[in-house]
Amino acid sequence: MKPVTMLRRRAKLGDQGYPMASIAFYGPDNKRATKVVLGVITHEGAEPQLYKWFSESKDIRYDPAIQLAILSRIQEHSAASVIMSENLLGCPHEEGIDYPEGEACPLCPYWKERDRYANFAGEEQ
After folding, report:
1. Of 22, 50, 75, 94, which alpha carbon lies 20 to 30 A from 81's?
2. Strand pairing category for 49-54 and 81-88
3. pLDDT of residue 118 exceeding 70
């Protein structure tokens, strides 16, 4: 299966209003996603409900079971819009939880000196 094929179809519909689902991929470098986070916002100003999936053995974007789980959550919340980039947003570890605030992740040196938001916008680094 091609990466994120089912999710890509939903995202191509564009902004259809609320509820909205946002999908972000993370990995130790810009080549392999090991974490995906789904955020669902039910209405303007609402706090997102977050769902996370992890895979250490393969690129999570190629996992049909994970895609189906994400789609199931999207359908559960009746999300009208899906926002997604297939580029990786950054390290899968969480600052302040997996490593100290303000420091670089010791497990993902690839991201240490990179602007992860530039990569999210589709720029190669």
Report:
1. 94
2. unpaired
3. no
pLDDT at 14: 86
How many domains does the chain contain in total?
1
Task: Decide if 125 is inside a domain.
Answer: no
Tokens of residue 54, six digits: 């992890």
User: Which domain, by its residues, includes 101?
Assistant: 5-117
| CATH assignment of the domain containing 58 | 3.30.420
Q: Which long-range contacts (CB under 8 A, 24 or more apart) does 50-56 make?
A: 54/92
Transcribe the chain into DSSP letters.
--TTHHHHHHHTT----SSEEEEEEE-SSSS---EEEEEEE-STTPPPEEEEEE-SSS-GGG-HHHHHHHHHHHHHTT-SEEEEEEEE-S-SS-BTTTB-TTS--TT-GGGTTS-HHHHHTT---
pTM for this prediction: 0.86
Query: Would residue 123 count as lying in a domain?
Result: no
